[in-house]
Here is the input.
Amino acid sequence: MLHRKKHSNDRDRMAQNSEHSAKQLKNRLTTSMIAIFLLLLASLAATYAWYIYNTNRHTTNVKMAAGTGVNLQISNTYDGDYSSATVLAKFPGQLVPVSTNRISGGFQKVTLFKNGGQGQAPLVTDTFTGGQTSDYYHTKLFLRTTGGTTDIYLSDIGFEDSDEENPISSAIRVGLVVHHPGEDQPPDSEYIFEISDKKNPQAQYNTDDGEEGYVLDSSKRDGSTVLPKLYTSDAYCNYNKSTGEVTLKQNSKKICTVSGDGEGKAGRSVEVEVYIWLEGCDEDCTGNLSGTTLQNLALSFAGIVR
Here is the structure.
């Protein structure tokens, strides 16, 4: 009888211990889940840069308008129809933040964050991978003239933000890769333009290496950053739409040179690759832009006969 009672008490104690252990395990799991949830919330709150994209609209109506003062002509194919303007294909994808200081070196995008250090954002970008062609807009245009040797300049990069209070243009870059004259020729030079002087009200730099203005070094894959060569509207020429007159500013930057025979026959066209991307390292590339888009963008070229 005593033996059965003792055995029963042992079972009760084992059941109580098992129940206590289960409660402890449950509490630990609950605590772990809460910690994971809080970490997730922190991550969501801190990934304000890099993971921005256009939600339901895309960069469209990319117009390349050529100045008509020197019979400058443009087309979206080498052997296509040339005129004073052309409309290129719509961007079919989503602008995913990528970064580069040299287009020829390729693009990179973030894959991992880590805790920020003193003076940094709570989480900063840490690990990167190569960007995909669907992450940015890429197209080609071709310039030619029937006149004499003509130096080509950008006269404007026009754009329209979908939300003026949260301007995605503040983090947009336009890159031009210019080829040698002729069909299927190698690249000769490239230029990266910062198209807007607008500021995002929630801007904050959160790249681990570097500081405001720095972007990923395309020659490295360790997150190293470098200060890129950026052009702004100071590099445009002045183009009078009424008269067709082209004049240069102090910092006007020649993009390329085209030549014709001067008697109405066009010379070899120059291929210009156009890249449009969202610069992930830009401090303006923050979470409040996630519902915005660049509704359209237009490049305008003009030429001066030597």
In short: The chain has one helix and 16 strands.
